[in-house]
Amino acid sequence: MINMTAGGICAAKGFSAAGIHCGIRKNHSKKDLALIKSCVRASAAAVYTTNLVKGAPITVTKWHLADGKAQAVICNSGNANTCNADGIEIAEQMSCLTAEALGIEAEDVVVASTGVIGQPLNLAPIAAGIPVLAEQLSEQGSDDACAAIMTTDTKEKQAAVEFTIGNAVCHLGGIAKGSGMIHPNMATMLVFLTTDVNISPAMLQKALSGDVQNTFNMTSVDGDTSTNDMAVILANGLAGNEEITEEGNDFNVFMRALNTVTVALCRMIAGDGEGATKLLECVVSGAKTLAAAKTVARGVISSSLTKAAMFGEDANWGRVLCAIGYCGADVDISKVHVAFQSAAGTVTVCERGAGVPFSEEEAAKVLHEKEIDIIIDLNDGPAAATAWGCDLTYDYVKINGDYRT
Fold first, then answer.
1. First-residue to last-residue Cα distance in the chain
2. How many CB atoms lie within 10 A of CB 3?
3. Among 29, 39, 130, 249, who pairs with 14 as Cys (CB 3.0-4.6 Å)?
4. Is 386 one of the annotated active-site residues of the chain?
5. Which domains, ranges and CATH numbers included, belong to the chain?
6. CA-CA distances (angstroms) from residue 24 to 84, 129, 312?
7. Which ranges constitute the DSSP H helices of 245-401?
8. CB of 48 closer than 8 Å to CB of 62
9. For 239-274, how does the pLDDT look when each residue is reduced to its tens digit (9 = 90+)?
10. Would you place residue 187 in the very low, low, confident or very high pLDDT band (cuts 50, 70, 90)?
11. Is residue 95 helix, strand or coil?
């Protein structure tokens, strides 16, 4: 059994975290530097943005994780350290300063940055802040670390679970940031995960790479894939289970635990999209193939017209069908059923590719809720998929119209 628990990034044994304001951001009330540490060297795995423009921290982190091991994560917000001539040097120096403060090797440090692209990153406040961070590391530090990686986020995003592998009680937790530039081709935004499960680096990478295809890769806010997207997981083995080195029951339990946390983070990220007022979940069933189900779910959740209709609480189901029609999936439109569902009830709006009578008043009640499901049955096969997104509001333009200035 997998149970939600408290602690976020520090729920697993042997992990501590901290977050402070060091001076990267002008607003002194906002934390801008986070640190996560395992008390021992850990197995490590990561996935990264597929954008050809990549932040310098991604390059450095790839180098450091080449051996499948890490012990700490340093992350700043307020500046992406992307498209800077000295970006690699800055990221490497962040690693060295962190390693020095913690008494570990620089190659065991994961580096991440998020914020404005193309602005020089001043190392001085980071250099001054890292020793303070190290002193403040705490097993209760998840909240502070989570706050320190936020940019336009309005809510902290963290989750954790407790589960059993063999006779060992295990934990897995994570924190995430993401509100804009959310349209994955990997696993978008920044996500840091920790676990005390004993698992080999190869199997940890397999688990993470497999999971993101059905979670972060199925989340979209605005159709923009960021330059600094990264999801990293550290597994320090302190739960004491027999090492997972191959697929089997233990690996499957670990995958379910990982998926429970990542789905929770996906929903938080989508629901906190820039300017968003509603969390949208698109559930597709009856597809010929899994690829078709995913394509339809992502196509609908990414449709600007559908997102705008959800903001306006308008049951304009034609926009859903339109998105299905152009998304590129092999679909027989004459078989498609569509319904909108929320805590207020369910309203069927389309059957066999055509509209059916429904109450606009009841539909408006359904769409007035903060969480809305778009239910699509393609009636053409066994495959299913789910995607997460949000509505498109006036505030999205306001936030991004002067994001830099």
1. 49
2. 11
3. 39
4. no
5. 3-271 (3.60.70.12), 279-401 (3.10.20.340)
6. 16, 10, 38
7. 249-271, 290-302, 304-311, 317-326, 360-367, 394-401
8. yes
9. 999 999 999 999 999 999 999 999 999 999 888 877
10. very low
11. helix
Contacts of 369 (CB under 8 A, 6+ apart): 278, 342, 343, 344
Tokens 């605005």, located at residue:
222
Could you give the CA distance from residue 127 to residue 176 in angstroms, rounded to a whole number? 24
Q: How far apart are CA 124 and CA 122, in angstroms?
A: 6
Structure tokens at 316: 């304009």
* Torsions phi, psi for 349 (to 5 deg): -120, -15
CB atoms within 10 A of CB 247: 12
Q: Which of 98, 188, 215, 262 is catalytic?
A: 188
Q: What values do phi and psi take at 394, rounded to 5?
A: -60, -35
230 forms beta bridges with: 48, 190
Tokens at residue 228, please?
A: 């600094």
Q: Residue 266's closest CA among 215, 194, 209, 207?
A: 215
How much is the pTM?
Answer: 0.88
Contacts of 367 (CB under 8 A, 6+ apart): 310, 313, 314, 315, 340, 342
